[in-house]
Amino acid sequence: MDLRTTYLGLNLRNPIVPSSSPLSQRLDDIRQLEDAGAPAVVMFSIFEEQIRHDAEALEHLLTAGTDSFAEALSYFPDVGSYKVGTEKYLELISSAKAAVDIPIIGSINGISPEGWTDYAMEIERAGASALELNAYYIATDPDRSGAEIEQMYVDVVRAVKNAVRIPVAMKLSPFFSSTAHMARRLAEAGADGLVMFNRFYQPDFDLDEMEVRSDLNLSTPQEMRLPLRWIAILHGRVSCSLAATTGVHSGRDAAKYLLAGADAVMTCSALLKNGIGHLRVMLRELEEWMASKEYTSVVEMKGAMSQKNVANPAAFERANYIKILEEYKGRYTTV
Ligand SMILES: Cc1cc2nc3c(=O)[nH]c(=O)nc-3n(C[C@H](O)[C@H](O)[C@H](O)COP(=O)(O)O)c2cc1C
User: Fold this and answer.
1) Atom of ligand 1 nearest to the CA of 45
2) pLDDT tens sequence across 5-34
């Protein structure tokens, strides 16, 4: 079975990539991911705020006029740990690059175009084969229009593309008025790939403690449907790679995203829940499913069920909504 795929111009030995998460925090885990079949690893994200803080702290240390490093540190008590954060991140990329033969993809969580793009260059210098930008932005300001926010996404892609030579992917929010148009604009701004979609963590209310609860739930395969639809719609319509993220727990889940048109399929909840070895299981399941349908390569599968290629393209659109409701009404009987 030929599982090879090309993503961001990188030749990958199979399409199931461990996505940005604590799975990449330790060199030993990165090695284990490679052993389990990972064709590349996306590093956990370093945050724009962390990088800025480092830069500001350094500026302060250089200009504070103090002759003692320890004294300078007392102005910013947490400088030490932040500094370790950004430097350690680069060190981890360098060590991972030396330890494994698969591409290491750096990840920055940021949405403003200034103040941290130099760090993208450092990630490149540290040996990353590509960079993923996680634009985790919740638009809460009623004074900011959608157009302004879209421009911000485009500006950040341009700024990072100007700073580095390695391919750059953007991990996108699903919340745009015109997702298809936004995807095309980002590709035109230079994005080499789009990762769909960011999974925003939603707060809940604890009714006993009367508190807002922020916890992190791992995904379920039911959450695949939103990215699945958009990848199917965008396949063949944007000039960049597409990666799917959310809800991939089995090889059959991965097969769905490939059929929709993904060039790479990312997974993390399944590996956090079942262990890194589950990647092997997913790859075997993908091969078994492909064999059962007489596919011999991932390339053949890619986009076979995209909107362009299915017999009923309306299945991805509004027209199908009416049909689904009518069918349900037909089946509904009162109890
Ligand atoms: C514990 C945890 C940590 C994560 N950290 C990051 C991160 O640092 N950067 C990022 O872009 N995504 C991060 N993600 C999101 C995942 O990369 C992924 O996009 C999301 O969980 C959906 O995929 P899944 O259904 O396979 O979990 C994290 C997810 C989890 C569960």
Assistant:
1) 8
2) 999 999 999 999 999 999 999 999 999 999
